[in-house]
Design goal:
The complex is a heterodimer of chains A (about 575) and B (about 160). Chain A has about 575 residues and is mostly beta strands. Chain A has 2 domains: about 260 residues, no CATH class; about 250 residues. In chain A, about 5% of the residues lie in helices and about 55% in strands. The longest helix of chain A has 19 residues. Chain B is built from 5 helices and 8 strands. In chain B, strands 1-8-7-4-5-6-2-3 form an 8-stranded mixed beta sheet, covered by helices on one side. Classes of the chains: A mainly beta (about 575), B alpha+beta (about 160).
Chain lengths: ~575, ~160
């Protein structure tokens, strides 16, 4: 048993480190999080009471460092898991553990680790607890810093697929990778003056999974490799990464033998009071998992960031979110942030800031002439980077103005126009074709005195009618219009009280024109937080950073506790 | 298996409580600043107290907190010599928006990038915003999760306590 051995090593080394230098007992950091739910039946919104009635997720991280020694572990507990969490999480046990040694030259880790090569297009392992996402590598990692500005990395391991009966379940395939990075400015002090900065990086990742297919000869070792650069001249930044993936017939790509690619670039200009960013991304056949038979969010080796703004207002963030299509997309994004100076006519006494963001995503062109998917090569088409078609998957145009009126009162006005192609990026079973929505939000903050404040949000979402040429054209698309109000009263530094109501007043079915009220209460003392939610939660996609999971409707009480130490 | 598991757990719990009254030193993690330069968190190299604030471009209360401190920052620095370091946990999806945002808002304090959450994990941060106060010797003396308007006053009181030592 690997985990048993590791625990023994962990404990003995921790003890060793502790006794060796008792006066400087090293340092412990970590955190605890626990979420409890008690759910009711609510037929109106389709929420069901689970048989156990009460559900609870708990986590505790403990990290120990003492001089050059480090160790850490996470205990997890699902008794049973809270609603909407991946259904293969159960039991209590160790979900992550490592030991390691660090000095100026080397950094060695044995056990679980999180790693990212460059932008993550070839390899990224990370945990996002809110999503139940954890694709950590279990194995060994070596980082070497042979000279200033140069970093070399090597990783070897199996990925975490799930957590069952209190134990990590690994993915089927092994993952290996090396990465090298050089930052010229640090390596060659004298070469570049302060106006310049330049860096390069290269990565090579490979996975091995046995060929268990009777009909096809599958590549057992599949590589993904490429390079990246970053450059800065004065206020201009430019960076990019390109990764090529070898033939990897999988469930995701219907077992084609195409190569895949992912490319991304960012060009930015900024000075005090002004920031501009242009980004582009091209992805084709880039689902790269350590098990070719898996789907959803399981054992991804790489990370393909969605190229759009991460929204925070309830109706904007949760009703029509977008996640990258790993099978292919071409995306662009532009963002401008400008601060209007204090004392000008528009800026007033406190100044104001204006933010504009536009993002679009299209289907890439697949050149199919001359290719036969059924021939012996198995190559289905050819694709070139940034070769986009007219078929739109997503477009988001949004702007907001932040304006402080006086010491007590400030506003944020926002507008969003979001278009999402429901035939490709499936978001709703009720929608047809392109969903076009317009959302307006007015956020008001009012400071009553030094400690007491009120904040409110008024949000309205309008959905355009079903487009021409589709069944039921001219009818209400998806769930129709929505309105949300939110009120929050805070007493610094401990208390908060809130109320939110989402109202689906425009639903085409009259019985589904439902209110989703929710009450919240929070108490914070330093690094401890208690919060209580009571009310209705609608079904929908819950997304963090372009990765989403489906959350069913619920009605009930949620209690959560977090502590950092 | 179970015995080992629980004994290690209680052992750790014991060590943790035994030293609870002690101060804690900052973990050592390599981050990059907005000019692409590597910065080690254990040797930030600032004189006087340091405030480390974890934030993200998609986190409204975080931005509210940092914009509030931005307005007070010149006074705070003059009176206590404090340095604020804002650590962005934006990942690859939004990381490139950090520099335009920071410059667009004309923030005067250093900003570090933690795109894969290494420092966030090492500091035991559950969610953002989370703010730490570090004394001259690198010990964590105060931390606060969340932000409500007025919390900056409490933080400033804690900073002033350090100055009085």
């Amino acid at each position: 048993m690997v985990s048993k051995g590791l625990v023994i090593i962990f404990v003995s080394l921790t003890y060793f480190g502790f006794s060796q230098d008792f006066t400087n007992g090293g340092s412990f950091t970590g955190n605890i999080e626990s979420t409890f739910q008690y759910l009711n039946n609510d037929t109106l919104i389709g929420a069901n009471q689970p048989a156990q009635k009460g559900l609870i997720n708990s986590y505790m991280n403990v990290f120990y460092t003492n001089k050059n020694f480090k160790a850490g572990m996470r205990l997890e507990s699902y008794l049973p898991r809270i609603q909407g969490y991946p259904n293969r999480f159960d039991g209590t046990g160790i979900g992550m553990r490592y030991i390691g040694y660090v000095n100026k030259l080397v950094d060695v880790t044995l056990g679980s680790f999180y790693e990212q090569f460059g932008a993550g297009l070839s390899l990224r392992t990370y945990e996002d607890r809110a999503l139940g996402y954890d694709n950590l590598l279990d194995g060994a990692r070596l980082i070497v810093r042979p000279y200033k500005g140069i970093v070399l990395k090597g990783v070897y391991g199996y990925q975490r697929l799930s957590f069952q009966q209190g134990q990590i379940v690994h993915g089927d395939g092994i993952v290996r990778g090396v990465d090298a990075e050089i930052n010229f400015k640090e390596t060659f002090d004298s070469l570049l003056n302060d106006n310049w900065d330049f860096g390069l990086g290269f990565s090579f990742v490979s996975k091995f999974q046995a060929d268990n297919d009777d009909a096809l000869i599958l590549p057992q070792n599949v590589g993904a490799y490429g390079g990246r650069f970053k450059a800065r001249y004065k206020n201009i930044n430019f960076n990019g990464e390109y990764i090529l993936k070898e033939q990897d017939p999988s469930n995701d790509n219907s077992k084609i033998y195409n190569y895949g690619h992912a490319a991304i670039f960012n060009l930015g200009y900024s000075k005090k009071g002004l920031g501009i960013l242009l980004s582009g991304k091209s992805v084709d056949n880039m689902s790269y998992r350590s098990d070719r038979t898996k789907d959803l969010q399981d054992v991804f080796i790489n990370y393909l960031p969605a190229l759009n703004k991460t929204h925070t207002y309830n109706l904007v963030a949760t009703l029509y979110p977008y996640a990258t299509q790993p099978m292919g997309e071409v995306a662009y994004q532009a963002e401008v942030l400008y601060t209007i100076k204090k004392g000008t006519k528009l800026g007033g006494k406190y100044g104001a800031s204006v933010n504009l963001n536009v993002s679009t995503t299209y289907r890439p062109v697949h050149h199919v002439s001359g290719f036969s998917p059924l021939d012996s090569t198995g190559v289905a088409y050819s694709a070139r980077p940034f070769d986009k078609s007219d078929s739109m998957y997503w477009r988001d145009i949004n702007f907001n103005i932040t304006k402080k009126i006086n010491k007590k009162l400030s506003f944020i006005f926002s507008y969003f126009n979001i278009n999402i192609n429901n035939d490709v990026a499936k978001i709703s079973n009720d929608a047809k074709g392109m969903i076009s929505s317009h959302i307006g939000v007015i956020e008001t903050s009012f400071k009553i005195n030094k400690k007491h404040s009120i904040r409110s949000e008024i949000q309205a979402l309008f959905v355009e009618k079903i487009k021409k040429g589709l069944p039921n054209a001219g009818g209400i698309n998806d769930k129709g219009n929505w309105g949300t109000i939110l009120l929050e009263y805070t007493v610094s530094p401990h208390w908060s009280f809130g109320f939110m109501d989402q109202y689906n007043y425009g639903n085409p079915t009259e019985s589904k024109r439902v209110h989703y009220p929710i009450f919240t209460f929070g108490y914070v003392k330093d690094a401890t937080r208690f919060s209580i939610y009571y009310g209705r939660q609608r079904a929908g996609l819950f997304c963090v950073g372009g990765v989403c999971r489906f959350v069913p409707a619920s009605n009930g009480l949620t209690f959560s506790f977090t502590q950092s130490f | 298996m179970k015995t080992i598991f629980f004994s290690s757990f209680f052992f750790l719990a014991f060590v943790f409580y035994a030293q609870e009254t002690d101060l804690k030193q900052l973990p050592s993690v390599d981050l990059t600043d907005l000019k692409g330069k590597k910065v080690n968190t254990a040797s930030l190299g600032f004189k006087g107290p340091v405030v480390i604030s974890f934030w993200a471009t998609w986190c409204s209360p975080c931005k509210k907190e940092l914009n509030t401190i931005h307005e007070l920052y010149a006074d705070w620095q003059a009176e206590t010599g404090v340095t604020l370091v804002a650590v962005s946990i934006d990942d690859e999806k939004t990381k490139n928006s950090v520099l335009p945002y920071v410059n667009g808002k004309a923030w005067d304090f250093p900003v570090l990038l933690d795109p894969n959450g290494d420092f966030k994990r090492a500091m035991g941060v559950n969610n953002v915003p989370h703010t730490f106060l570090i004394d001259q010797d690198g010990n964590i003396v105060y931390s606060h999760n969340n932000y409500a308007p007025g919390d900056e006053e409490k933080l400033y009181e804690e900073i002033k306590k350090l100055g009085a030592k």
